[in-house]
Design brief:
The protein contains 11 helices and 12 strands. The protein is of the alpha/beta class and 325 residues long. It folds into 2 domains: 7-102 and 294-324, 3-Layer(aba) Sandwich (Rossmann fold), CATH 3.40.50; 104-285, Rossmann fold, CATH 3.40.50.720. The strands form 2 sheets. A 7-stranded parallel sheet has the order 8-7-6-9-10-11-12. The two termini are 33 Å apart. The chain binds NADP nicotinamide-adenine-dinucleotide phosphate and glyoxylic acid. The site of NADP nicotinamide-adenine-dinucleotide phosphate (NAP) has 30 residues, from α4 and α6.
């Protein structure tokens, strides 16, 4: 390593060329494996680093930060940052940044894909066709929920929640929402309506989650709230697994109280293939691919690099996490 240049550890390969803004003035080390660096390795690499570009799979807790005395910035290549102990970072004078906005459309699109796939029972119908069970067109077979006229409940009307609202309205859905703050402008402009969470649940055909994972939102959707949902309703979660009590979700699906669940995120990731959620009928399970488009992943990496570079240059980064503002 060249003396004097800041050192940056990047925990995974990024889209080609996106590290270019650091070239020449920073020493960049990229973890070469497909799998994330194991915790001991992460600590070892960060011990000498001034900057870290991290993924949702990298747990940056106080122990990791304590072992990284030179660290000035943890630049998460994600909008969610529940993998980072932000309070500990603040105490230690380490900036934490994230990549909001650039992944909103991709994640909202995937949310709609899950809503549509659950509502129209796509995996079930496709699997039956492949098994040779499509023997005729039958007026009563594979009937699903029509989105036009159905009610969507949005939990968390932030960037992604709003992008989902706009899409759902285009499908003719009636849109209700619950969030920390009311948004009278969106209510007036789009004709969406606010409800307290417990009041909204019995009204919706589809509930979609878009809050960050925090101590307040952990198990926000628990057994009691699942019970309040309409029989046969659909739950879609592209936020974070722990926003839902997964054991309660399995029970609600097993006894047919919920009709289906579309999931992109899990309490434990990767979700083990023998997890009960993957055995209950009506679950569509994706491997955390909300932001997984070529364009979005490139833009996320560009933003993560810009955040990291700004801090190392002594400037304000474009996207500090809100707790750093
Ligand atoms: P955002 O713009 O910050 O939206 C979050 C919304 O939730 C905001 O309206 C926020 O209210 C609200 N909220 C926060 N805490 C709350 C609480 N305790 N109770 C009620 N409402 C609360 O974030 P975003 O960009 O839409 O992203 C949302 C989440 O999606 C991320 O945190 C991440 O976990 C997840 N995500 C997943 C994927 C994926 O690949 N599946 C991709 C991207 C994002 P305020 O406006 O008052 O802050
Ligand atoms: C992905 O899950 C993100 O938070 O960006």
């Amino acid at each position: 390593m060249t003396a004097g240049k800041p050192r940056v550890f990047v925990t995974r390969e990024l889209p080609a060329g996106t590290l270019e803004p650091l070239a020449g003035w920073a020493e960049v080390e990229v973890w070469p494996d497909f799998q994330p660096p194991p915790p001991a390795e992460l600590r070892r690499r960060l011990a000498e680093a001034d900057g870290a570009i991290t993924m949702v799979t990298d747990r940056i807790d106080d122990e990791v930060l304590a072992a990284a005395p030179r660290l000035k910035v943890v630049s998460n290549c994600a909008v969610g940052y529940d993998n980072i102990d932000v309070a500990a970072a603040r105490r230690r004078g380490v900036m934490v940044t994230h990549t909001p906005g650039v992944l909103t459309d991709a994640t909202a699109d995937l949310t709609m894909a899950l809503i549509l796939a659950c509502a129209r029972r796509l995996p079930e119908a496709e699997a039956a066709l492949r098994r040779g069970e499509w023997r005729t067109w039958h007026p009563l077979q594979w009937l699903g929920l029509e989105l036009n006229g159905a009610t969507l409940g949005i939990v968390g009307l932030g960037r992604i929640g709003r992008a989902v609202a706009r899409r759902a309205l285009a499908f003719g859905m009636r849109v209700l929402y619950w969030s920390r703050r009311r948004d009278p402008e969106a209510e007036a402009a789009w004709g969406i309506a606010y409800r307290p969470l417990d009041d909204m649940l019995p009204e919706v055909d589809v509930l979609t989650l878009h809050v960050p994972l925090t101590p307040e939102t952990r198990h926000l959707i628990d057994a009691r709230r699942l019970e309040r949902m309409k029989r046969g309703a659909i739950l879609v979660n592209t936020a974070r697994g722990d926003v839902v009590d997964e054991e309660a979700l399995v029970r609600a699906l097993e006894r047919g109280h919920l009709g289906a669940a579309g999931l992109d995120v899990y309490s434990r990731e990767p979700v083990p293939p023998d997890h009960p959620l993957l055995r209950v009928p009506g679950v569509i399970a994706l491997p955390h691919i909300g932001s997984a488009t070529e364009r979005t992943r490139r833009r996320m990496a560009e933003l993560a690099v810009a955040n990291c570079a700004a801090v190392l240059r002594g400037e304000r980064p474009p996207h500090p996490v809100p707790e750093m503002l």
